[in-house]
Write a structure and sequence with these properties.
The chain has 111 residues and is mainly α. It has one domain. It is 42% helix and 0% strand. The longest helix has 17 residues. The chain starts with 22 loop residues before the first helix and ends in a 5-residue tail after the last helix. Belongs to the PC-esterase family. TBL subfamily. One of its GO terms (cellular component) is Golgi apparatus. It comes from Nymphaea colorata (pocket water lily).
Length: 111
């Protein structure tokens, strides 16, 4: 998986599952939504799960901004191969896809 510096292509490995995804948490969210749908059928609820989609893009993972609790040293900030900020510099890509999926869910085109 490594660092996102200078990476622009998606991960192309069948069955790949990123380290940042918590399958148990994803199942818990889905179960909670399913229970809510059963108990309140009048509600229209949908989940747009972008987790796996995002995991395929190394350049879509934050790096230096993920270090929230301990500030990076000036040396670390000068070493992009170790501390690249790919969300802010290497994209468009992942957030644009999220927006397109949200738009398509909010405004579905008639068939």
């Amino acid at each position: 998986e490594g660092n996102c510096y200078n990476q622009t292509d998606p991960i192309n490995k069948e069955g790949y599952w990123g380290r940042g995804s918590d399958r148990a948490m994803m199942r818990a969210v889905q179960e909670a939504v399913d229970q809510l749908k059963e108990s309140k059928p009048e509600l229209s609820i949908a989940i747009i799960d972008i987790t796996q989609l995002s995991e395929y893009r190394k350049d879509g993972h934050p790096s230096i901004y993920r270090k929230q609790w301990e500030p990076l040293t000036p040396q670390q900030l000068l070493t992009p191969t170790s501390f690249a900020d790919c969300i802010h510099w290497c994209l468009p890509g992942v957030p644009d896809v999220w927006n397109e999926l949200l738009y398509a869910a909010l405004f579905p085109s008639p068939l």
